[in-house]
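Most newcomers find our protein records easier to grasp once they have seen one. To make this concrete, we reproduce a full record directly below:

===
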Amino acid sequence: MTHRPGISLAALFAALLAAGPALPHGDVAPQPVNTDALPDVGEEWLTENPYRDAGEDVWRKAVEIGDSGYNQNCARCHGLGGVSGGLAPDLRYLEAEEYGDEWYAERFRDGYTQNGTTKMPAFGELLGQKAAWAIRTYVETRPDDGALDAHADRLKEIRDALASGEADAEALREELAAIAAEVETASGAPVADSAAFRAAAFLQRDGAAGFHAAAEALTIGLSAAH
């Protein structure tokens, strides 16, 4: 990830929102996000992501819920899977640190209006703080551009082996976990929610369901990478 000296990505995002080509959001109704499975975070808005270091189980659940919440409410402007097409800031590059969290929370809570036009609606009261941080957790774990390129050929081979239903699940799970450990996030977060990471998790399931889910995760991930 490339940083410009002397300016944080949060400042760059603020500049993009102020002067960039972001389009009006319109009257799109926010979709509710079910956050019952996540720990409560209190009523006062936090300035740091509480799910980032809350333990693996909470973190995984936050990524899962945030994935759904993001793609229902945010992808229209910020891009499917967090990959922006240029109409709005690419949130993957907002640092996974308190200063990035603080900027994110303010924008999510209060929205952004320029010259009387709503560029981003205020989601705070509509979706709540738990949904905000779940979405943040998902976005900050998205892989950097090209993060899977070096492994693409092998991941295709693994996907085909899984699709055949005759692969050594444990051996492939270990290989996928090793590949996942090499994938970097765009935000600097320590773990990337990559296709390899998801496929390895699915292979912990028994039988054909795990094989199918892992193969599908690789198919979707490899397609999105290109």
Notes: Residues 56-73 form the longest helix (18 residues). Residues 202 and 209 are 8 Å apart (CA to CA).
